[in-house]
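Subject: for your reference before the review

Hello V.,

The reviewers asked for a structural picture of the protein, and I figured it would be easier to keep everything in one thread rather than splitting it across files. Below is the amino acid sequence we used in the manuscript, unchanged from the supplementary table.
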Amino acid sequence: MIRMRSKGLKATGCNSVIQALNSYAHWVHVGPDSKCGSGCRHPKIAHLKVPQLVLPTFSEPQVRCRISEALGLRMREIDFENLLVTLDGKGRKQRVAPFSSELRKSMFRYCREANRTPDCLLFANRTQTKLGRRNVLRDVKLRCKRLGFAPPARTLHAFRHTFAVNYLRRGLSVFHLQKVLGHSTLEMTRRYATLVIADLQAVHERVSLLSR
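And here is what came back from the structure prediction:
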């Protein structure tokens, strides 16, 4: 662990290695037919504590999905009539997510101009094949600079963070957000519930006895 950290590997990366080592220890001492639990006696390496940082987002004026889900999306998976889209998430888990009528207008206009058929990818290059993540990241960063602001850290994933934070700011349930984002546990969704200082100040001003 010391060697990995000295090379600059983050705690999350170290924890991936730790998980692999612990799984191997379980396989050696217990076997592959049972899951590792608190009652297992085999040697275990404790996971490193991961700092709970505020996730990067775009501000509201800067934004008008997880990028891999968007790039793999085909036209037949979009239900324009019922405002629903079928997404293939991590681990080949499918989920159905809603989208707004405003987004429907933009997508419908884009698909008509690009002559998209049901078997086509929604976003594709000139040869109608899947766009590369690096190319999309480059284009989004260029677009941010042309609009006059610096792209946030983890630029593509920041769209997902921005949606989640604004979803919660508008008073919607973290349980509903879990379904929309495709998280298997609520703990994963709670990371997006970290409120910024402005949110806390606004709530405090509403509930403070001195402000009445």
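For the response letter, the relevant points are probably these. Residues 4 and 14 are 7 Å apart (CA to CA). Residues 1-50 form one domain.

Happy to draft the paragraph if you're swamped.

O.
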